[in-house]
């Protein structure tokens, strides 16, 4: 090997020629490759060592950078090689060239043979990275095993390929640019994915540095597998992007130094709170809390942070503009590689709207939509608490409030007016109790008052009496004045019950009692009431079947003409033959029938029975006999009542003038305008009309004049002490009034001869009463009438 240039350490076969092609020096790798001994090369010319494939003459100056040819080896055999001519630029005489030989695949010894003299070969083979040497043409001159592994290629095929082929199309040019940049500037680094023969991709960070082999400029490079780092980076990028784009507000605090200070907030946080990252970075997130608010939640958060644990809380915070919002907050610790909590990530959700919606739903579920009062559910909840508190010495009262005239108001004026009345009642009740008392509407016209922490019955009674009077005041709706009136049933607790159920039942019993006592009054529960209510309920249940079971009977109380003494008519009075209790008077069951609506079928039954009797009498030739029936307010309010009555009369072939309908004076005066209309329709039908209990209902004389009635019936209370000046005056006045209005006058409840004489003397037209006869069955009445029975008058 010729001196002048130390080629020995080079791992590749290299020899140096001058401008004339004379071999000047060579290295051991060349000897190994070509099989020459140390002296065999001396004096040789280039063409004695190499031949081009196409036989063209070979001159260093003409040589291309990269070409293939034949190495003329010792022993005469040839080896296909790749040739690189590298002109010497500065370390030897100008005009010299290094010729670098690389055997083509299948031609030369394996890479290890080339490397064997390379002093750091072993080290390179054990590097935890790729190692390669590339010439300017982009061919690998040298590489370690790792390169072969990654590219899934053998050491023989690698030198035949251009390094750009190891990359994806899109990466090729950037890779080439980077290698050239290293040639140009001395170094470069870049990241790219190597693609193996079978498509396996591995990400590498390549660092290239320019150097020379002999005087051949090459690039030495290492490739560091960064697949894992890339994956992590990609994951981080995704997380970061997700956090940035999240619709949830995210806040990250750093707690490494004992404090908990804001390090990052995402745009959603900025939007939600109005605070920008720049202005709050480094602050404790507690600056958003509201002093004294949601203390319990703050305490839980504090404890969790101290214990480095996750925590979930819902609390109120303030935005930058001072607005309060509900924050559904989740905080989780972040642990570093050493297992130490360094950060907390908080996810904030503005749940203000949901909260408001929830509250609205809760309100709707617990309040009456029409009046805004508590509903049954809320009342039950509060009553439960109140009843429990009562056991601890805080007694209370539960009052059921039932409007007396609501149905009438509703039916007469329509539901709109009814609704206004209910709202006004709600207002009056609400205004009459204390803030912590509860006013509830149970539905319809039923209200309930829950009065808490109220000791005595007297105090409650005074309060309720005040409310009752208040509810009895007129309500003006759309120019109309209506009076709702109310009955109150009251239970005190714990006295009348120690559970919600018992207290409710006691108040309900008291309410029944109030209703049976004629409405518009306040009744307290008493132990005996239960029995009364029980009876009431039993009667109510029995009455439903009474008509169907034929348990009702009609009695007829004769009416006598006070001038002739003849029986000219009768009042039909219903009785109930109860299977267990025997005969029950209408005083007991008519109010129940009225209350439950059973009065309608019951009243129909009475009219049909009365018509049957009239039919019987007519068949006997008694055509002008008049039977009167009592008409309840509810019957009168029935829409189809007149049509229904007309059909009944027609069905029984009854002359309308033989049927008389008795309507009480108070019933008429409750709503005179309506009554007038109803009576006019009945009158149009041809039936007779009578005002019952006259003198007790404060008749307006102007209305009395307008009512198309035929008869007024003096209430029996005026006959009680007819000798007494007061009653006598009234009775005389009623008779005179009736006659002046061209009405017949009848007195009821006549029990004595004295009463009879008085009435006769003062020109009363008819009488009925025990003095002559109580109500009798139809057969007896028929006999009385047919036999021409006459009372001595
Ligand atoms: N809607 C309907 N109401 C009805 C019907 N049947 C009866 N009633 C009403 O029930 C009330 C009580 O009736 P009753 O117990 O039958 O009492 C009547 C007579 O028995 C009683 N009377 C008759 N004579 C005398 C007497 O000399 N003394 C005295 N103390 N009482 C007597 O008076 C009642 C008749 O009253 P009135 O109706 O006012 O004429 C009662 O209000 C009935 O109206 C029905 O079918 N439907």
TrEMBL record:
Residues 394-527 form the GGDEF domain. SMART domains: EAL, GGDEF, PAC, PAS. SUPFAM superfamilies: EAL domain-like, Nucleotide cyclase, PYP-like sensor domain (PAS domain). Residues 309-363 form the PAC domain. Residues 536-789 form the EAL domain. Residues 1-46, 116-186, 262-283 form the PAS domain. PANTHER family: BIOFILM ARCHITECTURE MAINTENANCE PROTEIN MBAA (PTHR44757:SF2), DIGUANYLATE CYCLASE DGCP (PTHR44757). This is EAL domain-containing protein. It comes from Pseudoduganella plicata.
């Amino acid at each position: 090997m010729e001196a002048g240039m130390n080629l020995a350490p080079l791992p590749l076969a290299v020899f140096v020629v001058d401008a004339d092609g004379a071999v000047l020096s060579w290295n051991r790798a060349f000897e190994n490759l070509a099989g020459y001994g140390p002296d065999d090369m001396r004096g040789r010319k280039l063409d004695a060592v190499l031949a081009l494939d196409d036989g063209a003459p070979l001159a260093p100056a003409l040589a291309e950078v990269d070409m293939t040819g034949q190495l003329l080896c010792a022993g005469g055999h040839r080896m296909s090689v790749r040739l690189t001519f590298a002109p010497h630029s500065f370390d030897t005489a100008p005009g010299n060239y290094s010729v670098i030989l690389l055997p083509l695949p299948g031609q030369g010894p394996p890479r290890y043979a080339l490397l064997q003299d390379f002093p750091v070969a072993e080290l390179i083979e054990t590097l935890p990275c790729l190692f390669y040497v590339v010439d300017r043409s982009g061919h690998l001159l040298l590489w370690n095993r790792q390169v072969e592994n990654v590219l899934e290629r053998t050491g023989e095929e690698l030198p035949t390929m251009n390094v750009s082929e190891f990359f994806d199309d899109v990466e090729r040019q950037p890779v080439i640019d980077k290698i050239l940049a290293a040639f140009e500037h001395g170094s470069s680094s870049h990241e790219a994915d190597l693609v193996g023969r079978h498509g396996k991709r591995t990400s590498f960070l390549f660092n290239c540095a320019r150097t020379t082999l002999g005087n051949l400029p090459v690039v030495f490079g290492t490739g560091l597998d960064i697949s894992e780092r890339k994956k992590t980076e990609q994951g981080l990028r995704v997380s970061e992007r997700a956090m940035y784009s999240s619709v949830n507000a995210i806040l990250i605090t750093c707690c490494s130094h004992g404090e908990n200070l804001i390090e990052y907030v995402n745009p959603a946080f900025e939007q939600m709170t109005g605070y920008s990252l720049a202005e709050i970075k480094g602050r404790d997130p507690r600056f958003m809390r509201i002093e004294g608010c949601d203390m319990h939640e703050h305490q839980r958060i504090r404890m969790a942070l101290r214990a480095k644990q996750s925590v979930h809380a819902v609390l109120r915070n303030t935005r930058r503009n001072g607005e309060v919002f509900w924050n559904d907050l989740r905080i989780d610790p972040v642990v570093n590689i050493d297992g130490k909590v360094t950060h907390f990530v908080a996810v904030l959700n503005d749940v203000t709207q949901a909260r408001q919606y929830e509250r609205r739903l809760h309100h709707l579920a617990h309040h009456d939509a029409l009046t805004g009062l508590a509903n049954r559910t809320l009342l039950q909840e509060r009553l439960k608490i109140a009843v429990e508190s009562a056991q601890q010495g805080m007694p209370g009262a539960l009052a059921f409030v039932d409007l007396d005239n609501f149905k009438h108001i509703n039916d007469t004026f329509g539901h709109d007016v009814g609704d206004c009345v209910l709202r006004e009642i709600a207002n009056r009740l609400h205004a009459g109790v204390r803030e912590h008392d509860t006013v509830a509407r149970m539905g319809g016209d039923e209200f309930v008052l829950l009065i808490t922490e109220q000791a005595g019955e007297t105090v409650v009674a005074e309060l309720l009496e005040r409310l009752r009077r208040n509810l009895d005041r007129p309500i003006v709706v759309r120019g109309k004045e209506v009076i709702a009136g109310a009955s109150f049933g009251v239970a005190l607790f714990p006295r009348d019950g120690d559970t919600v159920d018992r207290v409710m039942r006691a108040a309900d019993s008291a309410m029944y009692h109030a209703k049976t006592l004629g409405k518009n009054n306040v009744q307290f529960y008493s132990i005996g009431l239960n029995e009364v209510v029980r009876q009431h309920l039993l009667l109510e249940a029995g009455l439903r079947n009474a008509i169907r079971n034929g348990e009702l009977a009609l009695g007829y109380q004769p009416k006598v003409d006070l001038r002739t003494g003849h029986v000219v008519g009768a009042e039909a009075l219903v009785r109930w033959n109860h299977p267990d209790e025997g005969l029950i008077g209408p005083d007991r069951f008519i109010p129940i029938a009225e209350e439950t609506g059973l009065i309608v079928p019951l009243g129909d039954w009475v009219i049909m029975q009365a018509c049957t009797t009239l039919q019987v009498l007519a068949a006997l030739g008694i055509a002008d006999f008049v039977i009167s029936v009592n008409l309840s307010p509810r019957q009168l309010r029935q829409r189809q009542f007149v049509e229904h009555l007309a059909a009944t009369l027609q069905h029984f072939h009854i002359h309308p003038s033989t049927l008389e309908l008795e309507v009480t004076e108070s019933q008429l005066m409750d709503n005179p305008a309506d009554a007038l209309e109803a009576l006019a329709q009945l009158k149009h039908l041809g039936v007779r009309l009578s005002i019952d209990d006259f003198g007790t209902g404060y008749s307006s004389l102007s209305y009395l004049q307008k009512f198309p009635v035929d008869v007024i019936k003096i209430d029996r209370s005026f006959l009680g002490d007819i000798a007494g000046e007061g009653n006598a005056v009234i009775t005389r006045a009623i008779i005179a009034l009736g006659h002046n209005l061209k009405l017949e006058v009848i007195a009821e409840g006549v029990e004595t001869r004295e009463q009879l004489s008085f009435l006769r003397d003062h020109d009363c037209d008819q009488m009925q009463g025990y003095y002559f006869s109580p109500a009798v069955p139809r057969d007896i009445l028929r006999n009385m009438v047919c036999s021409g029975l006459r009372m001595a008058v």
